[in-house]
């Protein structure tokens, strides 16, 4: 039996209905530990209802779902005999993994397909900032990006491109898929083909926009794009809360990346989270709850081997 369990606060599983995202009082129940407990209760109950109490269980997932699969096996070994975790960044906490790893990997995806593709994307950010520094420039960029409304900030266009390139790398599957958006097989390769198909001297912004459009409009049914104040097409509103409480994964952008270099500041993260939710992130909670540091095992073995 293959079972997909919906995570609390996502999809239709809203414990407080339309008020589920109203405040920290309700959002406080949105945690990975609560979600894992949901899974344990559901799996146990389902096996009882199906008269299959002794049936073995293997949990699986990708990305955050993969993290949950790993942690479920750790926390509920008596419920699941195994876990398959794909692209699960369980070590992207504290200082376990270099903070630039994620965007370095995304950039390498594009660079491995085409150095020209990588170079075009790397160059577009400064051009957007320069052209979008005044109202006339923003108007022209809005036309280029086929925005439904004239954009007010150049960062809106940068974020639109950033999301397209990042998410496409995340779902660079060898077959057509619609996990995030409708996409062809090997979408990173297809994006780079679009960029490389432009003649020499073509506008870098036009190249980047056309490539990113593959992500947002592969089916060709979008007449214009919402750049600002749009809805939440991926249903990720709950992730903002989780990233501001327990899922604190520091990420930076190195000079080798195709994205603009940036650092990570806990203070800035904390202030942003407090402004949005009136909570502050717990930087070390995940490794406290689930582990992750290699030294823990060696310390444990040293401790238990000490003579009494």
UniProtKB/TrEMBL annotation:
<keyword id="KW-0378">Hydrolase</keyword>
<dbReference type="Pfam" id="PF05577">
    <property type="entry name" value="Peptidase_S28"/>
</dbReference>
<keyword id="KW-0325">Glycoprotein</keyword>
<keyword id="KW-0732">Signal</keyword>
<protein>
    <recommendedName>
        <fullName>Serine carboxypeptidase S28 family protein</fullName>
    </recommendedName>
</protein>
<keyword id="KW-0645">Protease</keyword>
<dbReference type="InterPro" id="IPR029058">
    <property type="entry name" value="AB_hydrolase_fold"/>
</dbReference>
<dbReference type="GO" id="GO:0070008">
    <property type="term" value="F:serine-type exopeptidase activity"/>
</dbReference>
<comment type="similarity">
    <text>Belongs to the peptidase S28 family.</text>
</comment>
<dbReference type="InterPro" id="IPR008758">
    <property type="entry name" value="Peptidase_S28"/>
</dbReference>
<dbReference type="GO" id="GO:0006508">
    <property type="term" value="P:proteolysis"/>
</dbReference>
<dbReference type="GO" id="GO:0008239">
    <property type="term" value="F:dipeptidyl-peptidase activity"/>
</dbReference>
